[in-house]
Sequence to fold (258 residues):
Amino acid sequence: MDILSSKTDGLLTIEFNRPERKNAITGAMYQSMADALVDAEQDAAVRAILFIGKPEIFTAGNDLEDFLKNAPRGDVPDASRPVYQFMRALSASTKPVVAAVSGAAIGIGTTMLMHCDLVYAADNAKFSMPFVQLGLCPEFSSSVLLPAIAGYPRAAEKLLLGEAFPAQEAFQMGLVSKVLPLDELVPFATRQAAKLVALPAASIRATKALMKRPRAEQIETSMMAEIELFSAMLRAPEAKEAFTAFFEKRKPDFSKFA
Fold:
């Protein structure tokens, strides 16, 4: 299975398990994760959630072939698509969410971390949001959350240029809570999640809700604005050139677009 999920001692662990494709995420994988999060929200026995990948890769982001095949066709984006279900379930989760990131976290692999509560990175982790490089725009409120986390100048550098940056820089920006040696990452993140499981669930829920409350409405508004613009840009010539160049293994040429 491309997504592994298990419940043990109050902890739901969701693992990317498609290493042969660099854990690139398909619609079916998004649906599996969305269903797991919805189930966890309704299951009182689940008191914390942990996302992990493989030692060499967290996720390469969207599986582009699957993504383009199932892209929205009309002018109005389809908010029932699995990726939207997943990100909404993650953003709305009242349970604490921990992520353990090793290797590359590309595109939505970085975006999703902004909706987690505790993010730990291995010293081999690299993050990137190459939306502009693909002729697209930020997604799922990253245009709001990254400036709030890192400040506008750093957020602009990461979102406008889309270049990869290492774990230590992510820590300095405030995107991750701690950087650890690779072999210590998952054990440490699991112990931190276990601490959350042992704490009063009502207090955890209240504290998380209070911290998220000031930006909750802004996140929802920006998420919808990004979905609409992202969907429109996906059909534009710049994105077509970017994706064609990707599959042809060449550098895209955006010079002909104003």
